[in-house]
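Record type: monomer structure entry
Structure origin: computed from sequence
Chain ID: A
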Amino acid sequence: MYFQKDSLLSENQEKLLITAAPYGPGFVPADFSDIPRTLKEQVQKAVDCYNAGAQILHIHVREEDGKPSKRMSRFNEFLAAVRAAVPKMILQVGGSISFAPDGDTARWPNLDTRHLLTQLENVDQVTIAIGTSGMNLLDLISPEDRAGTSMGQPGSQETWENMFVEAGPNFYVEHLKRLRGNNIQPYFMLAHIHQLETVETLLREGLYMGPLNLTYVAIGGGAAGRHPSDLMEFVLRTPDGAVLTNESIMRTMHPTNAISIALGNHVRVGNEDNLYTPRKELMTTVQQIEWCAGIADQLGRDVATADEARAIYRIGTTFDSVEETLRELGMPPNRRPGQRGCPVRR
């Protein structure tokens, strides 16, 4: 993203988007009373997050007994209920479906199961990973931070350390086609800058033509870590017409979200990523939303309404050509045959 001399003035920044991830798929409801269990509790959590100022709901679904659900009928049941409860909220389904422990083993669904997400109803976005990478959740979650939770139980370490996300071209090219065919916007979850480079290739080759909404996933273990220079480099490399959100893990959520708010980017909060205040007191998802809204207010930055969030994300919009896509995202055009130098629009 290009920063002009007035880019840090709040009146020139996009209104803040807050994504709430309140369903804690890496934990179990017994870990924290903030994690909802039943369908009624899950819907109420969406309402609470919306009322606190979040415009986007990142969704994982549980069965009535609190175990993670992989049933598409359960997803559709929840999506219909939450759409009725908060009709303007952007509903974003997590593309991993679930990675919570089922018994003693955390299992990722196969590609066919993940493709079923493209057929869901009442959904605005489905997150998509680009490029297979490790997902060692214990890399940046210290023993102190996971103590007293299911993630800290003896014998669980090997399971969490050896998780990975499979997302090669055989997955994401087909998944992008199916999402477009069903008018669902892909939401890119990128683990590091090299995956952003792969997305640029997809854009330039016409394998994806639409708005570029994405999150910088700084959760370690194969994804980006906590070095602030890596965050800044990702920000600088993100196309000017994209909408960038920050995701971090546990207590570094707070300083990195503060940086993102100051820069004019957007934030993600919730018990999926973090359970604590900066001083390591338990902190609910609603409190995390309010914390970010408070930081924005102190900086003079407005928080978007749900209608404004839909307009910023361009929900329902697709593009019809590579050239239109690159132009709308503020990217240089593709090089013409024999053209030398840096391609620019004239």
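Annotation 1: Strands lie at 18-20, 56-59, 90-93, 125-129, 133-134, 164-165, 185-190, 213-217, 243-247, 266-269.
Annotation 2: The CA atoms of residues 11 and 301 lie 7 Å apart.
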